[in-house]
Amino acid sequence: MDTNKKPILALTMGDPAGIGPEIIIKSLAFKETYNKCNPVVIGDASIMEYAVKQCNISLSINAIDDIKDAIFTYGTIDVYDLKCINMDTFKQGKVDAQCGNAAFLAVKKAIELAMANIVDGTVTAPLNKESLNMAGHHFDGHTEIYAHFTNTKKYAMLLADEFMRVIHVSTHVPLRKACDLVKKQRIIDVTELIYNACQQFGISHPQIGIAGLNPHASDNGLFGDEERNEIIPAIEELRLKGYDVEGPIPPDTLFAKAKCGKYDGCVAMYHDQGHIPFKVVGFNWNKETGQMESAKGVNITLGLPIIRVSVDHGTAFDVVGKNIASPDAMMLSIDYASRMARERINNQK
Q1: Which helix (DSSP H) or strand (DSSP E) does residue 104 occupy?
Q2: What pTM, to 2 d.p., does this model score?
Q3: Residue 67 to residue 74: CA distance in whole angstroms
Q4: Which residue of 81, 226, 318, 324 has the fewest C-beta atoms within 10 A of its own C-beta?
Q5: Measured distance CA(257)–CA(125) in Å, rounded
Q6: Which of 64, 66, 80, 67 has its CA nearest to residue 8?
Q7: CA max distance for the chain
Q8: Would you give per-residue pLDDT tens digits along the chain (349 residues)?
Q9: Cα separation of 33 and 292, whole Å?
């Protein structure tokens, strides 16, 4: 691959019945996007044509079936056309097996292209888990699809937005099970992942804050023993390895400090412990319009052999087709993926 060129990013269209196509169109309507990377959409050309018309943006679609045919020119959107949607039966804002299958095929193709070093990174628009499973693809979401098709065993979800960077010990499991997954080795693994990721973002000596599981980080065992038995031993071992870590910190203190820049990264013990503070910081609801005004923040899957960055919001079936979806998170995702791809390319020189 020619390392003198801008990184090629594969952007999957997500569930076509959701806002994925719209936020991609809006992101590619900015010339600055093409200054960062060479984007190509993986999905269905007819869907992207449909989205262009709904957005009322003057852009053209270049349907291709080989990345070599992409022109990477502002004003024209290259679409790797999988021809996976029947427009006669397509409906926006609906759970549909056809759309779940289309989203899956786009992700699978993007992974194949990245694994073959044909593209330098991937960015995913949101898919609908119900539609995905209705189509017979029984995955919890993007992360599990990527892990499966890259044969990755150790991986984790990283949420990132300005000062807030959060990784999770567990994600899509019942809360009762999440407590059982708080184990020393898993804490060590995800801390090392976020530490290395921060270095990729240009932070030479990251400081990582590690949350407790129980209220007040158990108050020395008054409210649980996970801190004493699993979290503290993990922190001690990480320090012996040379990592700058602090904890266990009560979550209500950890994230309040992190949003102001105290920590370069945070380790959350379970899904909602990390997602709630992250979205409180990055999501803004407009009471007057009754709409989400902006939804910033990205989701990066760490531990993969390829780059995968995603928006950290859903398909938003309730607003699709109204031309009001914010592209903020998609543009931030493209920015993160571009930086990570450039770092990887530079390391290969």
Answers
A1: helix 97-115
A2: 0.83
A3: 16
A4: 318
A5: 30
A6: 67
A7: 64
A8: 344 579 999 999 999 999 999 999 999 999 999 999 999 999 999 999 999 999 999 999 999 999 999 999 999 999 999 999 999 999 999 999 999 999 999 999 999 999 999 999 999 999 999 999 999 999 988 989 999 999 998 888 899 887 789 999 998 899 999 999 999 999 999 999 999 989 888 788 999 999 999 999 999 888 999 999 999 999 999 999 999 999 999 999 999 999 999 999 999 999 999 999 988 887 777 677 676 666 677 889 988 999 999 998 889 999 899 998 989 889 999 998 998 898 888 777 6
A9: 23
- CA dist 87 → 17, 61, 70, 317 (Å): 11, 16, 24, 18
Q: What distance in Å separates the CA atoms of residue 106 and residue 122, rounded to the nearest whole number?
A: 11
Give me the residue spans of the domains in the chain: 8-152+307-348, 156-278
On whether the CB atoms of residues 139 and 172 are closer than 8 A, the answer is no
Superfamily covering domain 156-278? Isopropylmalate Dehydrogenase (3.40.718.10)
Give me the helix-helix angle, 97-115 and 142-149, nearest 10°. Answer: 40
Residue 302's region, left for phi above 0, alpha for psi from -120 to 50, else beta, is: beta
Going by their DSSP bridges, the two strands 265-268 and 164-168 should be labelled as parallel
Query: 8-152+307-348 domain in CATH 3.10.310.40?
Result: no
DSSP 45: H
**Within this chain, domains 8-152+307-348 and 156-278 share the same CATH topology:** yes
